[in-house]
């Protein structure tokens, strides 16, 4: 039962025991009671003084609370964007700061952390093929105020710009280049195109890196493209092996060329010196030939025959009786040397008779015919 319902004879919340009080006590009466407790006389002037004093205390407490509420801290990796009545009032560095509450507003922004925005999808290439690509853009906030207020959502704007730049670059490249050797070029072109798109928007973002993840062909033709990629890798491997072989062979070839050039120069010098020696010898021989032609020719003939017969091991002997030539295999006789037997005397050869073998002196014709010099002398006579 409520305290003020009929039949309730209990005490009300205001302390009315008899139930004759019609309502709560008056505020003036409350202040008078408080004034009496503090030594006042309970009249109206004392109540007014007490009200003014209480108001001052309340205002002082409110001012202290307002002052303390303006303290804030900016972390080392953050920058604070200060707004005064909604207008930009500069940036605040790391540390403990104070701002007038309800006048300035501070928005801390992390400017050192590297963030990423992914982009992926199936895109059409320049040779009318479909390829699945994935891209990850890493960026950092370079201007905190532009990042907060140049666009409604700078991250969403960057995501849309990344998707647009990636589709533009993929649409201007062939599928083979996207899947194999042209990935680095696509990465650099996408980076440049993304910066070109973001420049007029002034989002306060700085692109740190662009990672172009391995692209994949459609599942229907994946096996064929895997074979093509393997073939291109084999091609690059063969090219590297050929280059290594060329680097190995080239020094040897250069050395061989240098050796042949030196041998040619040596042969040239030797021939020149020999020719000069022959000329000098001819110049020395000419006066002797003019003085004694016959003796000089015979001496030349003997020298020539000695030079020719020096390295030969075969002797042809003229038989004056029947005009036949006998062959004496001195080379085999020289090879078949008898073993060393000091107690056994060598047997005389039965087939060879020294008295029956005619000999020729050096300079005589071999077959009984006159020599070339004699025929030439006879012709002159």
UniProtKB/TrEMBL annotation:
A GO CC term assigned to this protein in UniProt: membrane
Residue ranges of every copy of the Band domain listed in the record: 69-229
Composition bias, Basic and acidic residues: 19-30, 370-381
Location within or outside the cell: Membrane
Region annotated Disordered, chain positions: 1-30, 339-381
Any matching Pfam family: HflK_N
UniProt keyword list: Membrane, Transmembrane, Transmembrane helix
Main location: membrane
Ranges annotated as spanning the membrane: 53-74
Skewed-composition ranges (Polar residues): 348-359
Record membrane topology: Single-pass membrane protein
Protease keyword on record: no
Subunit and interaction comment: HflC and HflK may interact to form a multimeric complex.
PANTHER family with a match to the protein in the record: MODULATOR OF FTSH PROTEASE HFLC
Functional description taken from the UniProt entry: HflC and HflK could encode or regulate a protease.
Family: Belongs to the band 7/mec-2 family. HflK subfamily.
Full protein name: Protein HflK
Organism listed in the record: Shewanella oneidensis (strain ATCC 700550 / JCM 31522 / CIP 106686 / LMG 19005 / NCIMB 14063 / MR-1)
């Amino acid at each position: 039962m409520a305290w003020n319902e009929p039949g309730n004879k209990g005490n009300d919340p205001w302390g009315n025991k008899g139930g004759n009080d019609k309502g709560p006590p008056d505020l003036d009466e409350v202040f008078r009671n408080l004034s009496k407790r503090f030594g006042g006389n309970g009249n109206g002037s004392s109540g007014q003084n007490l009200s003014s004093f209480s108001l001052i205390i309340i205002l002082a407490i409110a001012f202290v609370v307002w002052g303390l509420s303006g303290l804030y801290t900016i972390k080392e990796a953050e920058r604070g964007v200060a707004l005064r009545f909604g207008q930009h009032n500069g940036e605040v560095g790391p540390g403990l700061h104070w701002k007038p509450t309800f006048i300035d507003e501070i928005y801390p922004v992390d400017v050192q952390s590297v963030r990423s925005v992914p982009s992926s999808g199936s895109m059409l290439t320049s040779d009318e093929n479909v390829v699945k690509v994935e891209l990850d853009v890493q960026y950092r906030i370079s201007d905190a105020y532009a990042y907060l207020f140049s666009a409604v959502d700078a991250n969403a704007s960057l995501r849309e710009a990344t998707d647009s730049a990636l589709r533009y670059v993929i649409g201007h490249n062939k599928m083979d280049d996207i899947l194999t050797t042209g990935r680095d070029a696509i990465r650099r072109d996408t980076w440049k195109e993304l910066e070109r798109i973001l420049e007029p928007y002034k989002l306060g973002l700085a692109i740190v890196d662009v990672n172009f993840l391995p692209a994949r062909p459609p599942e229907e033709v994946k096996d064929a493209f895997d074979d093509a990629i393997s073939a291109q890798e084999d091609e690059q491997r063969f090219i590297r092996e050929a280059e290594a072989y060329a680097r190995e062979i080239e020094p040897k070839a250069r050395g061989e060329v240098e050796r042949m050039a030196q041998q040619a120069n040596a042969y040239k010098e030797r021939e020149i010196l020999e020719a000069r020696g022959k000329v000098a010898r001819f110049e020395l021989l000419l006066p002797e030939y003019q003085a004694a032609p016959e003796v000089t020719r015979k001496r030349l003939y003997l020298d020539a025959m000695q030079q020719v017969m020096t390295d030969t091991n075969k002797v042809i002997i003229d038989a004056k009786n029947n005009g036949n030539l006998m062959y004496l295999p001195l080379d085999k006789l020289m090879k078949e040397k008898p073993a060393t037997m000091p107690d056994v005397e060598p047997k005389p050869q039965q087939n060879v008779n020294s008295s029956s073998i005619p000999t020729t002196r050096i300079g005589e014709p071999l077959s009984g015919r006159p020599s070339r010099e004699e025929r030439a002398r006879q012709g002159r006579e």
